[in-house]
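User: Here's a structure from my thesis project, written as structure tokens. My advisor, Dr. K., wants to see whether a designed sequence matches the one we expressed. Can you design one independently, without my sequence as a hint?
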């Protein structure tokens, strides 16, 4: 006879993308576990005493897309397919997401009351310089649904603001996240939304793929030599997210910055060389300088990076980088660029690892867009 389990369904948005696929992978990898002491103390009925089993409902607009297939294939390889469900929905159409919550509510499990137990919320990058009204509408509607359906943990993946003032968020994609955090904290938190903000640093994947050489050269040649940046691998964002869901009570109404800690671009370049035995790919300096001259996006990236460094290492306006990541690092190890590069090589040799999410067009930024500034 099999032991009955307490099924916890986490709805992951952006599940076919970089962060969402990583969160899916790591949530599904969480072991079936006993409930925590405080859960059993609540005396909340038989289901609370049962082992917790983690399920992911992966939201996509198209469950037949190659990215959705890749997600399903990965779960198959990891023997977790029985706990992954691809669900169709469009964040621009809140009714389609409500249907997903309603469908889940009819399921057995979920701490005895069925339904979606947690949400990992990621919203697509709109493109450089593009107004983020879409994220505003999508994030408002999803957070409201999470409140309506009394979700236990609503993890919103946002971003680390460059400084304490709203105007420190130069790029619209950053600004909207700052606004949404404020809205959720002030409006929905007091009404009972169990929000948690997961704020990742600059993705290590930005230094990969077609645009990687441009990115490396931009940071090497256009940012001050001693300026530190705080990168993070999206796989580690997923690992932190899974850790948050596992012990959600510890993190309700907390802000968790996920980065590998401060590093200079030169330290990353050296780390890459040590890991691969090869120099990192760079772009011709004149090309990168032309991109910077003609386009606001790289200029804004440079401005934000310098501001970020200044606010944390010079003016004392923000906690230090090390203090900011302490909570995330208490959840799990977060790899530096060298360790992540070594991991990717090892996983590649075994034919496993991350599926390729968006090499050609990272973050909706194509080389064309970078050159022309058009989105
Ligand atoms: N790059 C960085 O350094 C960095 C740093 C911090 C934060 N961020 C933030 O990270 C976010 C992007 O995360 P990511 O790179 O992991 O995403 P991504 O790889 O670009 O994937 C985007 C995901 O959004 C889904 N999606 C798009 N429109 C949708 C809609 N209308 N309804 C439902 N799903 C939709 C797509 O799913 P389907 O196509 O399958 O529907 C896809 O899974 C952005 O908000 C960005 O500002 C980026």
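Assistant: Designed independently from the structure alone:
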């Amino acid at each position: 006879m099999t032991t009955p389990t307490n099924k916890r369904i986490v709805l992951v948005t952006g599940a076919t993308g970089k962060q969402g696929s990583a969160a899916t992978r790591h949530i599904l990898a969480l072991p079936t576990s006993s409930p925590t002491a405080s859960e059993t103390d609540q005396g909340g009925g038989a289901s609370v005493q049962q082992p917790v089993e983690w399920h992911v409902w992966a939201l996509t607009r198209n469950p037949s897309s190659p990215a959705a297939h890749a997600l399903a294939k990965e779960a198959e390889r990891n023997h977790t397919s029985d706990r992954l469900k691809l669900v169709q929905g469009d964040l621009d159409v809140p009714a389609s997401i409500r249907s997903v919550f309603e469908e889940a509510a009819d399921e057995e499990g979920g701490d005895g009351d069925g339904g979606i137990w947690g949400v990992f919320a990621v919203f697509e990058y709109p493109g450089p310089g593009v107004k983020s009204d879409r994220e505003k509408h999508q994030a408002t509607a999803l957070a409201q649904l999470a409140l309506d359906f009394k979700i236990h943990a609503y993890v919103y993946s946002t971003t680390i603001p460059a400084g304490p003032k709203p105007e420190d968020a130069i790029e619209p994609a950053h600004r909207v996240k700052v606004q949404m955090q404020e809205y959720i904290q002030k409006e929905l938190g007091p009404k009972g939304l169990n929000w948690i903000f997961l704020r990742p640093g600059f993705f290590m994947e930005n230094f990969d793929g077609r645009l990687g050489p441009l990115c490396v050269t931009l940071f090497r040649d256009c940012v001050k030599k001693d300026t530190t940046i705080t990168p993070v691998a999206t796989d580690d964002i997923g690992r932190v997210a899974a850790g948050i869901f596992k012990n959600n009570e510890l993190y309700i109404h907390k802000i968790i910055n996920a980065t590998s800690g401060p590093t200079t671009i030169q330290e990353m370049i050296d780390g890459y060389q040590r890991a691969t035995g090869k120099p990192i790919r760079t772009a011709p300096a004149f090309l990168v300088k032309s991109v910077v001259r003609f386009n606001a996006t790289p200029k804004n990236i440079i401005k934000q990076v310098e501001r970020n460094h200044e606010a944390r290492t010079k003016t004392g306006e923000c906690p230090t980088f090390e203090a900011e990541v302490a909570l995330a690092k208490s959840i799990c190890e977060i790899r530096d660029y060298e360790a992540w590069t070594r991991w990717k090589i090892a996983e590649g040799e075994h034919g496993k690892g991350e599926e390729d999410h968006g090499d050609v067009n990272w973050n909706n930024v194509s080389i064309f867009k970078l050159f022309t500034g058009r989105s």
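When you compare it with your expressed construct, this may help: Residues 42-47, 353-361 have pLDDT under 50 and may be disordered.
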